[in-house]
Design goal:
The chain has 16 helices and ten strands. It is α/β, with parallel strands linked by helices.
């Protein structure tokens, strides 16, 4: 048991050190990026698509933020599955409030071939202005700043190599006196740092832009026809077309709202089921990594009572600090794992403070969660990972789906 523990512990500590170094590198990367102030040439015409369902938390404010973009020449398409959706009433109010904006509302209906959100996107794009050169996608539960669309689209018409798509991501802002929202934010925070200046980026459907010609060249519609995940399928289409995805840190979007423990469990499990089906290699890497971490922690907890029973601080000479480290190796390893996780969380928090400077108060208030909770988040992730391995059925916005494969989905309810 001891040999197994020490072998796994060494691997986990090495992984922790690598993660800290990656956190430092990521922070430097964030500090080196800046907003795009000007791009030569006329801006492209843009269609922004926002799928909606129900009257979500602060939905009107979020949609209003989409319409308040300082980018010229764009139309906005709001889409729901049903004409009776409460969001349609909000669309009408916004038309009155923004009479000079081009605002379309589409009722997509339902499909037994794909997820509701994907179906909404496909039907909305059928109504896009034929002269639009760029498609941009936003989620109804995120609130973009006024420069979001300009920043998102800029790399698509800048000089030099043009990426296949440009993406941002989301950052959940926790609510005070709502611990489930703190867990959701801390768990989701780990995904943000997977995006960066490399060729392994993925699209996030709530903040993505792609040229219309690229959309057609990569046959994205074909990938969406039998899919539940717009962003995973878009990523797969671009990768198979050998087109790059560029991450723009300034397009990290804040999302707020209270949640419940049950909703967090369902949401996180659904995210990992989607990952298992659409990016199985990534899921396996996460499963091995987080399971190894959990085994080390559990073995350490089992070994601690015996170690402390045998420990005597006066039984050997030398400096007390080093004496404790040598004679309490399990305790020292457990402490090191916690410290490494906290340092990684610290750099992640510092990086996001740079990007979401308008939300500094919230980020500072919950700094403790991002710095102190990473070890607990890893334990939670192990549970959710193996929970996601048990089924291919997901519930999403009142619909139930069975994910047969990345190219086939069954609508069960």
């Amino acid at each position: 048991m001891l040999t197994t523990f020490y072998v796994l512990a060494i691997l986990v500590v090495i992984q922790g050190i690598v993660s800290v170094l990656e956190g430092v590198h990521y922070h430097r990367y964030i500090l080196s990026t800046s907003r795009q102030t000007r791009v030569d040439g006329p801006p492209p015409r843009i269609t922004v698509v926002v799928p909606c369902k129900g009257d979500d938390h602060e939905l009107a404010e979020n949609l209003r933020a989409v319409l308040h973009q300082d980018s010229p020449a764009f139309e906005t398409i709001f889409v729901t599955a049903s004409v009776d959706d409460p969001a349609q009433t909000i669309f009408e109010r916004l038309r009155v409030e923004f009479p000079l904006q081009i605002i379309k509302s589409v009722v997509a209906g339902t499909s037994d071939q794909r997820g509701e959100k994907v179906n909404n996107l496909l039907k909305a794009l059928d109504q896009a202005d034929p002269s639009s050169e760029v498609f941009a996608f936003a989620d109804s539960d995120a609130r973009p700043p006024s420069f979001w669309l300009r920043e998102l689209v800029a790399p698509l018409h800048a000089p030099g190599a043009v990426p296949g798509a440009v993406t941002g991501y989301r950052w959940y802002l926790p609510e005070r006196r709502n611990l489930p929202s703190v867990l959701r934010s801390a768990w989701n925070a780990g995904i943000v740092t997977l995006l960066g200046a490399h060729d392994k980026n993925f699209c996030w459907g709530g903040s993505t832009a792609i040229r219309r010609l690229t959309f057609e060249r990569a046959r994205v519609r074909d990938y969406w026809q039998h899919s539940i995940s717009d962003d995973y399928s878009l990523t797969q289409a671009l990768r198979e077309a050998q087109l790059a995805i560029r991450f723009v840190p300034q397009c990290l979007l804040p999302s707020s709202g209270r949640t419940t423990w049950r909703e967090v469990m369902e949401w996180s499990t659904r995210q990992l089921i989607l990952t298992r089906i659409y990016s199985n290699r990534l899921w396996k890497l996460a499963a091995v990594s987080q399971t190894g971490f959990t085994l080390v922690v559990l073995l350490a907890i089992a070994l601690l009572p015996r170690e402390w029973r045998l420990f005597s601080p006066t039984s050997s000479s030398g400096p007390t600090f080093f004496n404790w480290i040598v004679r309490l190796p399990v305790t020292s390893i457990l402490f090191m794992i916690f410290v490494l996780g906290s340092i990684r969380g610290l750099f992640r928090w510092l990086s996001v403070r740079v990007i979401l400077s308008d939300h500094m108060k919230n980020l500072d208030y919950f700094a403790w969660a991002y710095i102190l909770l990473p070890p607990a988040i890893s334990l939670f992730s192990t549970f959710i990972l193996w929970r996601s391995a048990m089924t291919r059925v997901v519930a999403w916005r009142g619909k139930v789906y069975e994910l047969v494969s990345s190219r086939e989905v069954k609508v069960l309810q």
